[in-house]
Amino acid sequence: MILLDGKKVAGEVKAEIAGRVAQRSARGGRVPQLAAVLVGDDGASETYVSHKARACSEVGFLSQVVRLPDTVGERELLCTVAALNADAAVDGFIVQLPLPAHINEHRIIEAINPAKDVDGFHPVNVGRMMLGLPAFVPATPAGIIELLGRYGIETSGRHCVVLGRSHIVGRPVANLLSQKARPGDCTVTLCHSRTQRLKELCRQADIIIAAIGAPGFLRGDMVREGAVVVDVGTTRVPAATRSGFRLAGDVCFDEVAPLCSYISPVPGGVGPMTIVSLLKNTWTACTGENG
Amino acid sequence: MILLDGKKVAGEVKAEIAGRVAQRSARGGRVPQLAAVLVGDDGASETYVSHKARACSEVGFLSQVVRLPDTVGERELLCTVAALNADAAVDGFIVQLPLPAHINEHRIIEAINPAKDVDGFHPVNVGRMMLGLPAFVPATPAGIIELLGRYGIETSGRHCVVLGRSHIVGRPVANLLSQKARPGDCTVTLCHSRTQRLKELCRQADIIIAAIGAPGFLRGDMVREGAVVVDVGTTRVPAATRSGFRLAGDVCFDEVAPLCSYISPVPGGVGPMTIVSLLKNTWTACTGENG
Asked: Of the candidates A185, A241, A247, B10, which lies 20 to 30 Å from B138 by C-alpha distance?
């Protein structure tokens, strides 16, 4: 069993990006800037945004956080989006989700200039990704693909079972892995809450991507010997840690890991890859080059 | 075995649309207009466009065909698209594919105003469809969904195997059937040329959608008793008919039909449903109402 060490790979990718930023800067080029809009004071959102800002500084990007109270109106938030669209110093930006219930998330996302939509949530980017055209791909699926690629895992013709049909992970990763690409060319089965005979399906999989947000959901008896398992779960569960919680994956690691050829841990697997994918998208937004 | 009689259902849907057009017209409302751009003189394209024009006249829509020689330049074609975008009398239009090799299809499609893109090929519509938002859905997948719905076929929790990953049929129908909707909520496996153990996968399917364009590909030993089979193939094969060809489906009908609970024939299955989906999209483009 080989651990898909996202933390290590993310460090390598960040070093590559830092090198390119330094080169660009030395040539007198502008350094990329990522902005994040943070509405309210949700603890998890705070953490995600601060991780993103730290990653920016690690590679030499500029970053800024626009903080708005959770009482902000939709119109005011749309004004913030318009200002970031217009700000030539900002190459890409994200609006950290979830937003308060009184705000229509789709309306906000569709207001973002697709060329600055480094989260890849705008319909234009979703559509272009699905059509196999150049697009900002959402960070988590992009990170998973990069992780599989960096470990040289063969995907062509393999049967990949994706657990979870979210727009942020399950659907896009299913789409990417089914495309004529490398990594890609998988036969993909997309499973969800209504799926019947799930165990039977999982046991046929060469690759399982678990993205449902249910701690320990994937048990040992659902995985065949030699499978590749990617754990996208990051549920906060209470624990005797300084923060009062720990991150729990969707995979029952102790049962599943011994069966696997490769498995990604939580934490330290997909999470760090997600952030570097965001950095790569921001690099592309700034330079027009692939990240 | 029950035949999924697309010709009959399409007739019913057309009668419904015709009724709404007549009502709208009686209230003094403008009648929807569909335009088609036809480049060159490909026989199949000619046939498709003339079928679409005939369907328009059957339901009381206006239609027009803009004919351009296959020597037309990309810029000229973009001008035609711009003119149709600007023409308030045209509610929706299609550019019949394929286009000559010297023209970039994506560039043409992305030039169409998404609000008039009744083929549903523009990235905005593809993305919105994938996100489960209101969108123009490509006509063939929409027609398949409608056919399943009209026959009251249960899809929730069922395992659907889609053969073929094209952007026009396989991918969108896989996406639609996996959505939380009715018909929908399927577990979907998307198969293609690289898929291994295809027979084994097909034999597990409750529903098979064959969209690969290989006549008679799906044989009896690939289908389990009681399955629902939808045949999207429409390959022209030489035959002793007036036209010199006949349409061949992807399903070996004689072997597969006796095993099925439901099966769509070729011709007379998905084909007629495709055209009524285009009419419904045009109705929506004109009126803002669902088609």
From this structure: A185
